[in-house]
Every structure is written in C-alpha cells, then in structure tokens.
C-alpha cells in the first residue's frame, strides 16, 4: 500500500502523521548526511491539487484541448 517514510524509516499512513511524529521526537529527523532537522512549527501552503485534474504543468483548459483533439 501507499505510505510516507523518510529514507526507509518509520512508515506513516498520512503526511500529517509523519510530520507530527518528527515534530514531537526532537533529534530523530536527520538529513542523509546526518544533519539534524528540527521541525518547529507548520508552514501554510496552498494545495497543488485544487483543480479537478492535476498533471504537472498541464492546465485544465489545455487538458480539455488535448482530449478533444483525441476524441476522448
């Protein structure tokens, strides 16, 4: 199944669970070179999947044009 993990460590069902775990457990989250990464507080960001379809840099109108051209 799908899960989130960092470098083969603990596995989490959701990204929120992963962030909560590493925020509470100071000193456990490390970069590949061993540098400790301290999570202090969440940063708000917009969801990249707010459109009905999401395919990288392909916009909704461009997706419609491609599908119409292929008669799908």
Automatic annotation (TrEMBL):
The keyword Transmembrane does not apply. One of its GO terms (molecular function) is non-membrane spanning protein tyrosine phosphatase activity. The keyword Cell membrane does not apply. Keywords: Receptor. SUPFAM superfamilies: SH2 domain (SSF55550). GO terms for cellular component: cytoplasm. InterPro entries: SH2_dom_sf. One of its GO terms (biological process) is positive regulation of ERK1 and ERK2 cascade. PANTHER family: PROTEIN-TYROSINE-PHOSPHATASE, TYROSINE-PROTEIN PHOSPHATASE NON-RECEPTOR TYPE 11. This is Protein tyrosine phosphatase, non-receptor type 6. The lineage of its organism: Eukaryota, Metazoa, Chordata, Craniata, Vertebrata. The gene is PTPN6.
